What does this fold into?
Amino acid sequence: MATFLYKLGRLAFRRRHFVALIWVALLTLAGVGAASAPSAGSTSFSIPGTEAQKAFDLLEQRFPGASADGGTGRIVFKAPEGEKMTDAANKATVAKTVKELGDGSEVVSVTDPFTTNAVSKDGTVAYTSVKYEAPGMELKDSTREALEKAGDEARATGLTVDIGGDALQAAAEPGAAGEIIGIALAAVVLVITLGSLVAAGLPLLTAIIGVGIGVSTITALANALDLGDTTSTLALMIGLAVGIDYALFIVSRYRGELAEGRDREEAAGRATGTAGSAVVFAGLTVVIALAGLSVVGVPMLTKMGLAAAGTVVVAVLIALTMVPALLGYAGRKVRPAGEKRKANKTKAPEGQAKPGLGVRWASFVIRRPAAVLLLGVLGLGAIAVPATQLELGLPDDGSQPTSTTQRRAYDLLSEGFGPGFNGPLMIVVDAKNSADPKAAATTVADGIKDLKDVVTVTPATFNKAGDTAMITVIPDSKPSSTQTEDLVHAIRDQSTDVKADTDANVLVTGTTAMNIDFSQKLTDALVPYLALVVGLAFLLLIVVFRSILVPLKAALGFLLSVLAALGAVVAVFQWGWLSGLIGVEETGPIMSMMPIFMVGVVFGLAMDYEVFLVTRMREAYVHGESPSQAIVTGFRHSSRVVVAAAIIMMAVFGGFISSSESMIKMIGFGLAIAVFFDAFVVRMAIVPAVLALLGKKAWWLPKWLDRALPNVDVEGEGLRTLDDDKDDKKDEDRELVRV
It folds into this structure.
């Protein structure tokens, strides 16, 4: 591996014009494809294999033309103090609003609250529902404007009017200002780490090119592959972070090789052969973790994971080819590492030189490994405690900031009709095989009325064929409550008896049921996903480190990081601790996909630091240093760069915290805090402490397994052999000259 990448790095350095041209051409091609591709519609959200999805599919089949996936809008009216919505003037305002909405080109139906019993018992709140042909995010701007205009005109008469539903939903912006700040912070860290603007600019430039290719490709394929905006945001987030980090490691190693006295082409080859090998295996762990999301069985997660994994592959390829090429263009503008301290080192013996912070820290950990290990584990364990109270759900209008009209509409409906009104359950009665479909539907409705936490059960609505009925159930509790979840399970438990008595199948669907099924599916998939991803990465790290205990320690350290990060997410987004600092206006359940998503992404990123830091230790150990000396050597050469890489990742992820979209904000915070825990606590403290306690046992590998494993030569041993061959060749040339 090292020898191949060494040759690749030298080739890219020499043929830099050709390499640069290829990547610029790919960026141009992807950009043209993105610009010419049709606009992507809304991402279809489906959860194959769940009861809620089966019911939804059945509705589309048995109720054709009902636009089951069409957008909805809900205008909520509240009468002024001392008035009621049934007053003549207020009724006239509502009637005018209903008429105006009904004239819309994409409108399927508009309900009149006074004929559909959509007025609260005290008469102060009423609502009208608008059903559209197209999904919410595919509606024309004119349709949304008409909905907002109707609300404004009704509001002008003195009524309190707010609008809910997904008809106002628009593509979320990830927060451009935050991204710019994140990239600016990354640039500052790069300048400090690499010592010059040119050297710092290389990782930024290559990362931006890689992300440009990845995100543009996703945009070009978005319509054909049904990729949503979140897919591009995730690819941008991960691509920027790993793209900068991978280039940083190679540029840093290049400067180190220059400091050893090698010429620039040789240094580029050496940097690509050694640090490039670590980049390949670090990238593989990230790709495994992201692509492994497909095991969950949720198409949206699968597409997000594969798209982000593709962007990581591009980042790796750019680091191995374009970075050496740009180093060739930079020439002497990228200086050897420690050049400014060269004069001081020539005046004082090496033993008297003040060791760097990384060396001093590693020496401290080696002297007190047990104390450092205990403190690190207990600290992360304490932060992870809130994760035991984790509540999962999907964001709805109730999680929106109170400044939005969607949230105000949500609260008005809760005030007028009860908290459960915002999360109705749709009961689908498939009576195709029943002798009396109407009697079957009546049996179902009567059984549900007797359950706890039920406020209203509407009469059954049948399709034209008369073999399928819909029943709406309004719970007494809010959609995200455990009581509503218990009600869904209770209705499903009754379906067995209904099937036996009437031969009718009863299915529960609706947004609330979808959320419950989605959370359950993710929970069920977490253990298989962990086994697959951690298992594959464990085998990969055994090959890299030629050890059993080092990969095991890496996996356990990752679990500490991700649990602590989940604990922090729960404390901020669910409990509200310090939520004002990052702009969390409303607390509530944690997004259902957050745990499994964080496991995948954080595992891949955690293994990045493990590979970059420990491969340098492994390199020193196999070249004859003692285990303790190898730890110090690894920190001497890698700690500064690993810390810089972690700060850069935190800056990039932290930039997404400014997003107005709660899901993006939560992902950005979770990944940023996870990187902090993993890099600064696990990799910088727990890893050297464990290695110091294990000593030589850390690098133990059964002989039979050592013979069976392929030799990937991450340490660059093949390059040392190459040096010996060159020295022998020089000796032969000298002998020939003498002769």
